[in-house]
Design goal:
This protein is of the alpha/beta class. The strands form three sheets. Strands 1, 10, 11, 12, 14, 16, 17, 18 and 19 form a nine-stranded mixed beta sheet that branches. Strands 2, 3, 4, 5, 6, 7, 8 and 9 form an eight-stranded mixed beta sheet that branches. α18 runs antiparallel to α19.
């Protein structure tokens, strides 16, 4: 632990933020009404995720004496410990079941913070589709960059064969990542409750520890029908891939479990015997709750994302004791930077104030990112940006090179980044504010947030202007009625594609959250990032630009 971190007065003695939120005003009430409706819609989608393949398949799974995936998870996790589910809306809006037939998240098992990857066998037998693959690979990436052990709860029929063209080649990355984690000294565990066939057989094969359930686990490269076709050999499931055979003959199974609960008990024992230690410092500051009520977060972000709001109102309801040591408060005022802590973990904060990033804001953020790296302090990005400013005077003033400096600093920063899209994340502002392409350790979106190359109305308007220019250049009359139809269609498309559910469904973030959960989500993410070293980039000093 560096001395700078232990005695950082900018965090310990930060100004307690005062709130100017008018809870009785029309704006607050309307913002809250819209947010509550959005949360109802989110709740309905999460109910579908929890329902898996539906009641019929859940009942059938139970009738076979087997636990549902969330029942297995509940038995695995420490009692009353946190669990942050990841990518819950994966596959939303696609032909596949929302949730993508797999459950992933960060939780605590026998006192060890881990990534859990669990198949839901009630959804097409736990078969993996392209979204399941993306969700699995993202969970493994989170495990790798944060140095978190992985527990696989396996019961899958393998690839969803009609989509094999999108699965076979990238699917090998799962095995690559499992073996890479092992080489890094990060433990991987497979608890096999049912089928683990074909390529899926390599999951217990690649994991450091494997536990197979008697009369349920079936781990083989080819099942009896394939073996019969390929070799003419007659065999049954148990001879080919049963738990007893793998425990006593092949040696694939490290542990033979008599039933599912026994497998979970063994899995918890394995984690307890690892002697696992985090390499990052623990919380070093008082984890005092905010002075201002987090419930009020529902009324802060405007229902119309084009309307700016003060991110200090958000910080006052998220950071410890509502304390915030602001950096350069009178310069580049469209972006707010400063020092705070969340559940005792020191952080630097970069938050958009009015959406637009000017040159001053870009340079201010660049310097602050470098400062955070100098003292090994994670960065929290609170996005509400329409992008970098455009126009002749701004182009002449160097907005491109100043924006490039900020993006350069984000790219080369090595402290953990955590990103929250509060309202809007448009254009290159998404990049400069550590969007998905810049590998934040975790990125989540408030339920009302939007993400796109630009706002729907702006994008439709740009297309209309280009259409008029093309008609003028070719000497054609401009068809205004047809343009009106195209413009409405484009605006509807971008509105749909910028919706938080759509964006999260494509795994461009790690989940859509209730704004009131922001503090808890950041705390879990910070705890996870401190499983590995927390170190900033060295080799350059802070420079003026």
């Amino acid at each position: 632990m560096s001395a700078a971190r232990a005695t950082n007065p900018r965090v310990q003695e930060g100004t307690v933020l005062r709130s100017h939120l008018d809870r009785s005003g029309d704006a607050y009430r309307e913002n809250r009404r819209v947010a509550e409706q959005q949360l109802v819609e989110l709740g309905a989608q999460l109910d579908l995720v929890r329902d898996g393949g539906g009641q019929r398949y859940r009942d059938r799974h139970h009738s076979r004496g087997r636990l549902l995936v969330r029942e297995r998870l509940e038995l695995l996790l420490d009692r009353d410990a946190h669990f942050l589910e990841l990518s819950s809306l994966a596959a939303w809006g696609s032909e596949f079941t929302v949730g993508a037939s797999i459950l992933t998240g960060i939780g605590v098992v026998s006192g060890v913070e881990v990534v859990v990857i669990a198949h839901d066998p009630t959804v097409r037998g736990g078969a993996m589709n392209p979204y399941s693959l993306k969700k699995t690979l993202r969970a493994l990436e989170i495990a790798r960059v944060n140095r978190l052990p992985v527990i696989n709860l396996v019961e899958s029929g393998g690839a969803d064969l009609p989509t094999q063209a999108d699965l076979f080649v990238p699917g090998g990355t799962i095995f690559h990542d499992l073996t890479e984690l092992s080489a890094m000294g990060v433990p991987t565990v497979a608890l096999v409750f049912g089928n683990s066939t074909a390529g899926g057989a390599y999951v217990p094969g690649m994991c450091d520890y494997s536990v197979l359930v008697d009369q349920q686990a079936k781990v083989f490269l080819g099942g009896p029908p394939l073996v019969k076709m390929a070799t003419g050999e007659e065999s049954d499931d148990e001879d080919l891939g049963g738990a007893a055979m793998h425990a006593r003959v092949s040696g694939l199974a490290d542990h033979f479990a008599v039933d599912e609960r026994d497998a979970i008990r063994i899995g918890r024992r394995i984690l307890s015997e690892l002697g696992w230690r985090k390499l990052g410092p623990g919380p070093t500051l008082p984890a005092e709750p905010p002075i201002h009520d987090p419930d009020e977060l529902l009324g802060i972000a405007p229902a119309d994302v084009r309307v700016p709001f003060d991110p200090r109102e958000v910080l006052a309801r998220v950071v410890d004791g509502s304390r915030f040591g602001e950096y350069k408060p009178d310069y580049g005022t469209s972006i707010v930077t400063g020092w705070a802590s969340v559940h005792g973990f020191p952080v630097g904060v970069i938050a958009n104030a009015n959406g637009v990033l000017f040159s001053e804001e870009a340079k201010k953020a660049t310097e602050f990112i470098q400062l955070a790296n100098q003292i090994d302090t994670p960065l929290v990005f609170l996005q509400n940006t329409t992008g970098y400013m455009v126009g002749a005077s701004y182009e002449q003033g160097g907005i491109i090179k100043d924006g490039a400096k900020m993006i350069n600093a984000v790219t080369n920063s090595t402290v953990p980044h955590l990103t929250v899209n509060m309202a809007a994340s448009f254009g290159a502002g998404n990049y400069g504010m550590s969007g998905r392409a810049y590998s934040p350790r975790l990125m989540v979106a408030w339920v009302g947030a939007k993400l796109a190359v630009m706002g729907a109305a702006q994008l439709a308007g740009v297309m209309s202007i280009l259409g008029k220019a093309s008609a003028d250049a070719s000497g054609r009359p401009f068809d205004q009625p047809a343009d009106d139809v195209r413009r409405a269609a484009i605006e509807a498309q971008i509105t749909r594609e910028s919706h938080s559910f759509f964006v999260s469904g494509k795994l461009y973030d790690d989940g859509v959250i209730d704004p009131r959960d922001t503090r808890s989500v950041l705390a879990i993410a910070l705890s996870a990032t401190h499983s590995g070293p927390v170190e900033g980039r060295r080799g350059y000093g802070v420079f003026r630009m």
